Amino acid sequence: TISMRGITKVFATDEMETHALRGIDLAIDTGDFVSICGPSGCGKSTLLSLLGLLDMPTSGSYQIEGHEVSGLSLSEAAYIRNEKIGFIFQSFNLIDELTVFDNIALPLRYRRSSIPKAEIDARVQACLQKVDMTHRSGHRPNQLSGGQQQRIAIARALVGNPALLLVDEPTGNLDSKNGDAVMEMLCELNRKGTTLCMVTHDPRYADMAGRKLHLLDGRILDADGAPLQ
Amino acid sequence: TISMRGITKVFATDEMETHALRGIDLAIDTGDFVSICGPSGCGKSTLLSLLGLLDMPTSGSYQIEGHEVSGLSLSEAAYIRNEKIGFIFQSFNLIDELTVFDNIALPLRYRRSSIPKAEIDARVQACLQKVDMTHRSGHRPNQLSGGQQQRIAIARALVGNPALLLVDEPTGNLDSKNGDAVMEMLCELNRKGTTLCMVTHDPRYADMAGRKLHLLDGRILDADGAPLQ
Ligand SMILES: Nc1ncnc2c1ncn2[C@@H]1O[C@H](COP(=O)(O)OP(=O)(O)OP(=O)(O)O)[C@@H](O)[C@H]1O
Ligand SMILES: Nc1ncnc2c1ncn2[C@@H]1O[C@H](COP(=O)(O)OP(=O)(O)OP(=O)(O)O)[C@@H](O)[C@H]1O
Ligand SMILES: [Mg+2]
Ligand SMILES: [Mg+2]
User: Fold this and answer.
1) How far apart are CA A156 and CA B113, in angstroms?
2) Chain A residues with CB-CB distance to B37 below 8 A
């Protein structure tokens, strides 16, 4: 169970402040599937990065299983993230110097509890198969099409069997057949117990979630479209 | 008028060859609006990069206004591209070290025929307004949301008033309202005479084109779905 109360995020640049999140209250239970929609620039990726401990809020409380995590050090945050959270980034964040295989293996190789090489290789192969990219495992990300890169980013987020999967626009570069295949895989994971929080512009995919949140200007809207705060 | 005959593109990596395009015949007249659809990895971005002289074919003929361009030197290709072609990339290709304003101004500053600073500034401002991003012109791309970055990439492609506009998935990161606004702008440019060739996974937007091409495994399909070659 994760819970946010009064979460704000302000980005300060030289001459202005951008209030990306203006007071978010949010509770997600284990096994939930929540989708987040809203116009470009309204705070979706920012909210996901706070949920994923990639960044810290400006104010407010963020608790995971009853523990306050909004004040964690970067290394403590990184440990929790690596063990429990999978993240599919809007711009993929693949490492060009590494092969596809090594990109997917990286989260497992980072783990403090050292995983045997044979197990890492087996898990990477399984994820490559899930996204139908085994034939390119020796190539580099910049040798792949946009949609192929997106599928590698997805495979990397899954390889650690995360308890919480945060997904930012997973189908933006995919045709509907590949997009449907990805959504089917995500729904399957959710059925097996993975908590899933997904940002998407596609209303068809947003509707697959158990609960749909709408964001506007850094706030969550209630069912009538009025800001909840 | 641009025309491709027998165009192939092979990417060679150490142990394998990827046949990205396997014989493309294609004619686009001035003022046409052509959309290109097809599954992930089928060759759409590759085709667009050849059309935009960002890369050269492995074999085949590519003519622009009757001139063979498939054998041009990189600097000759760069000159034509800078003067006549606008390109919106699937992964934006914005320059993180430059402000939003300077990113959009760059194609004009590169022109051999030197454009007065006042005119450059006016044209950049006009493009910023078209994509509703004037308020962020002093920021860097990595301070923007995914959809905001996409809008800056669009503004940069338009600032040179290109005769040919090549567009790779312009709405992948945009909500439907922003996506519709972008499509309206592209249709408007086409009505005023800009030749438009657009890759998209969105069937609603593909249908706005005067002609729809479907790609599969590096080939164009005819109306019954059979490869044209
Ligand atoms: N530099 C490269 N080296 C090797 N293979 C490449 C390179 N660039 C593209 N390819 C391969 O060529 C094929 C076509 O790629 P392309 O980017 O044109 O696909 P696409 O239709 O745009 O896909 P998407 O819808 O996923 O963006 C893919 O299999 C891709 O992996
Ligand atoms: N590092 C940063 N510095 C300054 N402003 C930022 C930074 N990151 C994000 N922002 C701003 O915060 C706001 C919310 O950004 P966010 O990326 O969360 O939007 P989004 O809802 O994901 O949009 P999109 O649908 O376009 O991806 C935007 O106005 C964005 O420009
Ligand atoms: Mg975003
Ligand atoms: Mg592509």
Assistant:
1) 47
2) 175
Question: Using a CB-CB distance cutoff of 8 angstroms, which residues of chain A are in contact with residue B203?
Answer: 176
* Residue A220 to residue A218: CA distance in whole angstroms: 7
Q: Are A159 and A121 in contact (CB under 8 A)?
A: no
B82 Cα to the center of ligand 2, angstroms: 30
CA-proximal residue: ligand 2, atom 26 (nearest): B147
Query: Looking at beta carbons, which residues of chain B come within 8 Å of A38?
Result: 175
CB-nearest to A40 from B138, B145, B169 is: B145
Chain mean pLDDT for chain B: 93
3-state secondary structure B36-75: EECCCCCCHHHHHHHHCCCCCCCEEEEEECCEECCCCCHH
Q: Write out the H or E segment, with its range, that includes residue A128.
A: helix A117-130
pLDDT of residue B227: 73
Which amino acid, one-letter code, is at B177? K
Q: Looking at the partner chain, which of B15, B91, B176 has a beta carbon nearest the beta carbon of A146?
A: B91
B227: which DSSP letter? B
Would you give per-residue pLDDT tens digits along chain A (229 residues)? 899 999 999 999 877 899 999 999 999 999 999 999 999 999 999 999 999 999 999 999 999 989 999 989 888 999 899 889 999 998 899 999 999 999 999 999 988 788 999 999 999 999 999 999 999 999 999 999 999 999 999 999 999 999 999 999 999 889 999 899 999 999 999 999 999 999 999 999 999 999 999 999 999 997 666 776 5
Phi–psi pair at A78, nearest 5 degrees: -65, -35
Euclidean distance between CA atoms A46 and A190, whole angstroms: 23
Cα–Cα distance list, A60 to A57, A77, A139, B96 (Å): 7, 17, 43, 31
Phi and psi torsions of A144, nearest 5°:
-115, 155
In this prediction, residue A151 carries a pLDDT of: 93
The pLDDT value given to residue A15: 79
Which atom of ligand 1 lies nearest, measured to the CA of A150?
Answer: 26
Q: How much is the CA Rg of chain A, to the nearest whole Å?
A: 18
| B195-206 confidence digits (pLDDT tens) | 999 999 999 999
Q: How far apart are CA B102 and CA B121, in angstroms?
A: 10
Residue A112: helix, strand or coil by DSSP?
Answer: coil
* Rounded CA separation B153/B100 (Å): 9
CA distance B92 to B184: 20
What is the per-residue pLDDT for B224? 64
d(CA A120, CA A116): 6
